[in-house]
């Protein structure tokens, strides 16, 4: 099967007779990438599945109003990121009674108890280091390092200047290096 362009999928979606087919194509094209974006933010596989489902519900509801001011994937990535961050804030509120609790504690607990994590000790230590980062640095590091996204793409998703993203990435790398050096035995 030939992969359809985003414009072709949007065209199909706008036609009531092919709306569901278009959404299926969108799912097939982007589900895995969005899954891993969410998973890097919330750590837990089960939570990721729930958030991914909510993300695609929001995409379904909003796709008719999408007017291509940004790329389709950038728009969907932003929805997935916002859904993930909202989930973490809600989980933090439930666990700590406010939004001032430590989200890092929740993520670390999820990482350490995740039966789906199959990395070695070095990968586990890297994930622990990433979890210690402030939220924005964690997002920027994951998108740049793991997803190999360009700063311009990240800028569209996080709605932040390229200069600020470069600074966040630089600080994140330094903090991760420092964390890993301090953990060496």
TrEMBL record:
It comes from the Bacteria. Residues 124-176 form the RNA polymerase sigma factor 70 region 4 type domain. InterPro entries: RNA_pol_sigma-70-like, RNA_pol_sigma-70_dom, RNA_pol_sigma70_r2, RNA_pol_sigma70_r4_t2, RNA_pol_sigma_r2, RNA_pol_sigma_r3/r4-like, WH-like_DNA-bd_sf. Keywords: Sigma factor, Transcription, Transcription regulation. Coiled coil: none annotated. GO terms for molecular function: DNA binding; sigma factor activity. Residues 26-93 form the RNA polymerase sigma-70 region domain. One of its GO terms (biological process) is DNA-templated transcription initiation. Belongs to the sigma-70 factor family. ECF subfamily. PANTHER family: RNA POLYMERASE ECF-TYPE SIGMA FACTO (PTHR43133), RNA POLYMERASE SIGMA FACTOR (PTHR43133:SF51). This is Sigma-70 family RNA polymerase sigma factor.
